[in-house]
Amino acid sequence: MTVAAQSSASKSREILSNADVVLMTKSGLAKTIIIRKIKESKSNFDVSVENLVDLKNAGVDEEIIETMMERADGDTRRETSIDIKTETTAENVSTTKTVSIEKKPVANTGNRREILRSAKTVAVEKSSLNPSRQALEKELLKRKDWQALDLNLVRHKDGADLYIEIGYVPLSWITHRYVFRVYDNKTGTVIAAGETTSWGSLAGNLAREISKKLSKIL
How confident is the model over 169-184, as pLDDT tens digits? Predict the structure, then answer.
């Protein structure tokens, strides 16, 4: 195998993970280089709330994290083929057939924009005691960037197009960190995520970050 062929084969096998992004960040690579690498490589990123917080704590730039989320959300409907060996008893001949398994579609960046533009209602779901739902809704309604989204707040998640999930980061007694994710209720797609602290006004901080993240999609 030639050097070029070996390089090509190595590249095709490479699949980026969260740990790879942290390694590139700690190695001092420029943000633009890391983002380009993410966009040009296959990836298997875990963008759960816990892992988003871990990435932030590891010093990964927010723009890089957003690019990771876009890649995690950006794989459109794919089919995974598996080989099932079947035997023809009469002829005692083994044959192989391919069965297609359809994965659940995940919205790409353009689709996230369309999801947000078509949404009319949004609900707030909390796993933390604070802030109160009423306080957060009040702060959201005061913001012009939220008003521009033209989203009506509703009480129950089941009847909403989108819902905002808020949780407290365990063991963050000093920083008092809270994370949020905005989901498309129909597909479960995460269209925005972020974190803030309770310093000052938790409801106000969350309202600002949620509005800013959603506005950026548009």
Answer: 887 777 788 999 999 9
